[in-house]
Amino acid sequence: MSEVKRDAFIDGRWVAGEARFAVTDPFDDAPIADVTDADEAMADTAVAAAERAFAGWSRRAAPERGTLLGALGARMLADERRLAELCTRENGKPIKESLAEVRYAASFLTWFAGEAGRVYGETIPASNPAQRLLVTREPVGPVAVITPWNFPYAMLTRKLGAALAAGCTVVAKPAEATPLGTLAIAELAQEVGVPAGVFNVVPTSRAREVGGHLLAAKAIRKISFTGSTEVGMLIMKNAAADLKRVSLELGGNAPFVVLSDADLDAAVAGALVAKFRNSGQTCVAANRFIVEEPVAEAFAGKLRAAVAELHVGRGSDPRTDVGPVIDDAAARKIAGLVADAVKRGARVVLGTPPDGASRLIHPVILDGITPEMALWRTEIFGPVIALRTAADEGAAIAQANDTEYGLVAYVYTRDGARQLRVAEALEAGMVGVNEGLVSTAQAPFGGIKHSGFGREGSRHGIDDYTNLKYIAQRIG
Ligand code: SIN
Q: Which of 120, 260, 300, 395 could cross-link 390 (Cys pair, CB 3.0–4.6 Å)?
């Protein structure tokens, strides 16, 4: 495997373009690679390749497709160190988290390698004895997958694994900040024998234009997007023009509820994962901490002590827990949210409000949060903890649901009945009960409300890539 692939990958070939864009290290802006800046014409070539490859790939025996996915997952794991280092360079995340991401990403390929052979149909008892009624599942066709910068490998494989297992072919458009991980996976896919045209990659700095072009392409039958709610809404609107299938994994505003009977040490351990994974830049990040009054002080004290221990620095340093945020705009946004909260009366109980000038943001804990503060409604996407108290369980649930988002929610309580009662009352596609990390390949990942729809991972993850076909057969 070569050092870093830098060109578009179309129809099994590396295609260099004259226009290029720079990928840099978010820690210090050091250049990593100049990448081919795919334009609309390249996107068309990639779509045509995916369309040509579809017939052969979809007709392949499903277990064979599974074997190739399994091989790709294994190949990723064999190269995990190199892939992790690449991820830390282009994304900035701590190296231990990059390693975890490579394993998480490979687990989707392994999972869907198995699921490929389980795309079951059904038979339905007919009213007419002379009929047989069958239901089969067919791949939707070539798919465009548009992935974010925060998990360059896992957000790709969660879509790619399901699509390829179902028999679809793929054109992937990675985020401008982090195209190298996707290109590295394309190289491995080629190495393990994924046929030409089945998986194509068009890196671009013109996401709106090239992404929009993919969306408009007649041959593309489905779009799977992970990213902001704003862009997700635009994609859905544009996809309507051609009635394309859409899966949207969008923003979050996760509540992290700590009830009065919670194991506070467990809650703090869960909070660290739910808040600081990828330096706070995940859509499942705990955005609003809601703590029942009797334990508010004790929880805040324990949390302060644990957060103060976190090491902030360059992602390649093995001690680092919190790396740089992705770019200057992210740093400014986080600083703005903290400044707004402080102006409206929040108290800084740990750290110094960031000034927006540095991407390296030291953790901040704020308490006295109110719904008038912008961070109550906005995904912070950074290492800032916002604490609010609730008088009782009912108030905690009302506060938790006071958001237009509904991706994930967390609740900590020792009481078994309360665990289920609160989990059921929380408006979210996923709930962590005494658990700060819900993401895993076996489980359906996805949201409700403005967090989108469709599920990724699990046995449900393949559904969005298939159409049901009903066949009525007369036998007599
Ligand atoms: C995301 O932030 O979009 C996904 C995070 C995860 O899969 O856990």
A: 395
Q: How far is ligand 1, taken at its centre, from the CA of residue 274, in Å? A: 11
Q: Where are the domains of the chain?
A: 8-250+451-474, 254-441
Q: 8-250+451-474 with 254-441: one CATH topology?
A: no
Q: Cβ(141)–Cβ(171) under 8 Å?
A: no
Q: Give the pLDDT band (50/70/90) at residue 336.
A: very high
Look at ligand 1, atom 3, and give the residue with the nearest C-alpha. Answer: 283
Percent of the chain whose pLDDT exceeds 90: 99
Average pLDDT score over residue span 176-199:
98
What is the architecture of the domain spanning 8-250+451-474? 3-Layer(aba) Sandwich (3.40)
Predicted structure pTM score: 0.97
- Considering the segment(s) 254-441 as one domain, its CATH architecture is 3-Layer(aba) Sandwich (3.40)
Q: Please, what is the average pLDDT of the chain?
A: 97
pLDDT score, position 1: 46
Task: Output DSSP code: residue 236.
Answer: H
Cα–Cα distance, 285 to 11 (Å, whole number): 37
Residue from 249, 292, 379, 393 carrying the catalytic annotation: 249
In 3D space, the residue among 228, 207, 208, 224 whose CA is nearest the CA of residue 378 turns out to be 228
Instruction: Kindly report, residue by residue over 107-144, the tens digit of the pLDDT.
Output: 999 999 999 999 999 999 999 999 999 999 999 999 99
CA distance 199 to 212: 19
- Taking residues 223-245, what's their average pLDDT? 97
Choose which residue among 282, 381, 430, 451 to substitute to test ligand 1 binding: the one with the highest number of ligand atoms within 8 A of its C-beta.
Answer: 282
Closest residue by CA, ligand 1 atom 8: 439
150 lines ligand 1 (CB under 6 A): yes
**3-state class of 87 per DSSP?**
helix
51 labelled catalytic: no
Ligand 1 proximity of 107 Cβ (cutoff 6 Å): no
- Binding site membership of 246 for ligand 1 (Cβ less than 6 Å): no
The yes-or-no answer on residue 80 being catalytic is no
Q: What's the pLDDT at 2?
A: 53
Ligand 1 mutation target, pool 445, 451, 455, 456, most atoms within 8 A of CB = 445
| Ligand 1 atom closest to residue 439's alpha carbon, by position in its atom list | 8
Match 């590295």 to its residue by tokens. Answer: 184
* Nearest of 419, 421, 431, 412 to residue 298 by alpha carbon: 412
For residue 73, pLDDT over 80 is answered with yes
Question: 136 alpha carbon to ligand 1 midpoint, in Å?
Answer: 31
Question: Which residue of 283, 381, 456 sits with most ligand 1 atoms within 8 Å of its CB, as the best mutation to test the pocket?
Answer: 283
Read off the pLDDT of residues 244-281 as tens digits, 9 standing for 90 and up: 999 999 999 999 999 999 999 999 999 999 999 999 99
Question: What per-residue string of b and e applies to 102-129 under the rule 16 or more CB within 10 Å gives b?
Answer: bbbbbbbbbbbbebbeebeeeeeeeeee
